[in-house]
């Protein structure tokens, strides 16, 4: 009996899930554009899906403010109600801040607060809080340890870091020396011990905060080390991936893949293009010859709507109204997308992408293992 109840409940849950998926896939997304070119002018754009799960409404009426409304998952994100709620919240915040400012500026409130602190014992025998200092393992401060570490690294790399003290007036001397080092770069008689500016950092006000100087000899060594071949005895430096850098180029240049992409684009457009288009009005260019050309084009391209449009061959005139309406069904788009994914060129691309991701993941783990062994043997 209990098994039958559990089976019935499971079946009901599955049916509800299937019904929800079918509702999502088969409920159309409707869109419409309506306009009226006669006074008062009017233009409206509307997009709706599942009532207010997605609802967008934009409208312009002559002589009135621009109307905009957006609902997502039944909640209004943009619209008159949302703007009114924001206005109310802003009024509440302003009134609260005003009351707080009045309380802070009230001398009687300050005296009452000081008396309460005195009664509770706050401020008796207390001392001013000192600025916390982080101490290293040897007892020295962390700033000193960091400065020492930076100095040792700079010495090993033939790099000198010069910080500009903005609180002193002698920072102009540092900037002058920096300008002198900058001019050395264009000097053909440079020596190995000369220095050039490698990096400059600035403060928020635009003044120089720090300059990093590198010796010419060290700069040449860094350039050589960048372009020289890796050491074959170093497993980390000589590690090379099995995947080529441009492994995807054969898929990008595959014409069959582009044909399938254009085909699915055409299918999606044919499904979602407007189903109801209506235009009426009166159009005049002011030139009989151009008016005749316009009429011939209109009757040859759009004959079903040409009878609702009047051509004025003598005067310049433009007025009328119309609408464009259509719908998009997510199930149809999902069907066309599935056919595109299951096509032969897409199957080949997906399969090789999965292979590349798998190999890259294994190579990353192997490289981490080699780095760990190298660090343990160092």
What features would you describe in this structure?
- By secondary structure, the chain is α+β, with helices and mostly antiparallel strands.
- Helix content is 51%, strand content 22%.
- A hairpin with a 5-residue loop joins strand 3 and strand 4.
- Helix 1 crosses helix 11 and helix 8 (255-272) packs antiparallel against helix 11.
- It is extended.
- The two termini are 69 Å apart.
* Poorly predicted parts: 122-156
Radius of gyration: 37 Å
Largest sheet: 8 strands, mixed
From N to C, what is the helix and strand string? HEEEEEHHHEHEEHHHEHHEEHH
Tell me the fraction of residues in β-strands, as a range: 15-25%
Strand order in the largest sheet: 5-4-3-2-1-11-9-10
- What is the terminal separation in angstroms? 69 Å
Shape designation? extended
Number of strands: 11
Helix percent reads 40-55%
Number of helices: 12
The assigned structural class equals alpha+beta
Q: Which whole number gives the mean pLDDT?
A: 78
């Amino acid at each position: 009996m209990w098994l039958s109840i559990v089976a019935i409940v499971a079946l009901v849950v599955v049916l509800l899930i299937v019904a929800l998926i079918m509702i999502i896939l088969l409920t159309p997304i409707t869109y419409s554009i309506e306009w009226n070119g006669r006074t008062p002018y009017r233009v409206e754009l509307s997009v709706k899906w599942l009532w207010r799960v997605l609802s967008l409404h934009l409208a312009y009426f002559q002589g009135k403010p621009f109307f905009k409304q957006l609902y997502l998952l039944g909640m209004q994100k943009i619209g008159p109600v949302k703007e009114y709620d924001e206005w109310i919240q802003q009024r509440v915040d302003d009134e609260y801040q005003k009351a707080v400012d009045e309380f802070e500026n009230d001398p009687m409130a300050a005296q009452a607060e000081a008396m309460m602190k005195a009664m509770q014992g706050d401020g008796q025998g207390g001392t001013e809080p000192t600025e916390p200092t982080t101490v290293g393992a040897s007892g020295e401060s962390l700033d000193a340890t960091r400065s020492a570490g930076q100095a040792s690294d700079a010495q090993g790399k033939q790099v000198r870091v010069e910080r500009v003290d903005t609180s002193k007036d002698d920072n102009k001397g540092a900037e002058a020396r920096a300008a002198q080092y900058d001019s050395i770069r264009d000097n053909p008689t440079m020596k190995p011990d000369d220095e050039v500016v490698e990096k400059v950092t600035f403060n928020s006000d635009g003044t120089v905060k720090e300059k990093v100087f590198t010796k010419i000899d060290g700069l040449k060594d860094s350039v050589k080390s960048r372009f020289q071949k890796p050491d074959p005895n170093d497993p980390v430096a000589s590690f090379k991936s099995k995947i080529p850098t441009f492994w995807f180029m054969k898929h990008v240049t595959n014409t069959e893949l582009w044909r399938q992409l254009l085909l699915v684009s055409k299918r999606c457009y044919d499904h979602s293009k407007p189903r109801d288009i209506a235009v009426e009005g009166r159009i005049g260019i002011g030139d009989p010859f151009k008016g005749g050309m316009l009429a011939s084009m209109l009757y040859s391209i759009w004959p079903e709507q040409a009878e609702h449009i009047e051509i004025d061959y003598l005067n310049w005139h433009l007025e009328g109204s119309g609408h464009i309406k259509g719908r998009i069904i997510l199930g149809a788009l999902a069907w066309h997308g599935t056919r595109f994914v299951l096509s032969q060129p897409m199957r080949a691309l997906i399969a090789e992408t999965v292979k590349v991701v798998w190999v890259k993941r294994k190579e990353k783990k192997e490289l981490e293992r080699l780095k760990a062994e190298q660090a343990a043997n160092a």
